[in-house]
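User: Let's play a game. I give you a shape written as tokens, and you guess the letters that built it. Ready? Here's round one.
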């Protein structure tokens, strides 16, 4: 009985645009079945139909980058992953990225973010929440950003961070996928970081602080598992470069990467 009612409700909702003009100013067309069936049962049936046609809850876990980076300065293990749970409009996101130096046998950078994501268009979500830096200099930040698919299929993730010390920074990431075959994919990637002020304790200058531009070629053995190799250039600018030079470190470097991208 309930399945029949649900199908009836679905048929009425599909036909709603046809009657929209005639019923303008009255109750929604899909509630017309309430005249013939119990209103409570119809409300339950409509909830059932909606839950199975767009309001389902899903979960995703992805390791976008699990890679070994090799350069003249040494090797490092890098991770960049995320997980989310929710529906089409609202989601809870967990993001984490960082680097473990094989030269010093220590974690150089590590952060985690917990974000609430709300769809503001068919292609973009507004995200807000909190970020915590485990290394270096454990800090807490408020986060506000956008994430989505820009014109011409560029994947974009941009966010501003306000630390508990009042420091304002920002990060922009952009990726694109060239499908050379159904399984072989060439992916350019760009990541830029900015600071609104000098942050001496982090050896960071104002303006554009760093730029990471790379090219990765991956092969999807299965859609959920794809090893890759690539090359990237990393550079520091402005006051950040001055801090590195004063410490006797290079302000730019070329790295070679090998890793895997996986999800479920």
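Assistant: Ready! My guess for every position:
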């Amino acid at each position: 009985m309930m399945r029949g009612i649900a199908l009836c409700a679905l048929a009425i909702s599909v036909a709603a645009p046809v009657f929209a003009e005639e019923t303008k100013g009255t109750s929604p067309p899909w509630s017309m079945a309430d005249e013939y069936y119990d209103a409570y049962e119809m409300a339950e049936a409509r909830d059932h139909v909606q839950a199975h046609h767009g309001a389902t809850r899903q979960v995703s876990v992805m390791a976008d980058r699990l890679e070994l980076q090799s350069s003249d300065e040494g090797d490092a293990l890098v991770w960049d992953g995320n997980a989310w749970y929710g529906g089409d409009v609202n989601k809870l996101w967990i993001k984490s990225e960082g680097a473990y130096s094989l030269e010093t046998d220590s974690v150089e950078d590590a952060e985690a973010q917990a974000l609430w994501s709300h769809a503001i268009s068919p292609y973009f979500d507004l995200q807000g929440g909190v970020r915590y830096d485990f290394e270096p200099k454990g800090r807490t930040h408020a986060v506000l950003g956008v994430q989505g698919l820009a014109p011409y299929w560029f994947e974009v993730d941009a966010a501003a961070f306000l630390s508990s010390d009042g420091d304002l920074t920002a990060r922009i990431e952009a990726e694109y996928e060239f499908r050379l075959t159904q399984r072989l994919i060439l992916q350019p990637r760009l990541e830029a970081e900015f600071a609104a002020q000098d942050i001496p304790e982090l050896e960071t200058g104002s303006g554009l602080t760093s730029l990471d531009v790379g090219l990765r070629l991956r092969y999807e053995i299965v859609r959920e598992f794809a090893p890759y190799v690539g090359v990237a250039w990393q550079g520091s600018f402005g006051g950040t470069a001055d801090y590195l030079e004063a410490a006797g470190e290079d302000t730019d470097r070329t790295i070679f990467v090998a890793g895997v991208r996986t999800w479920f």
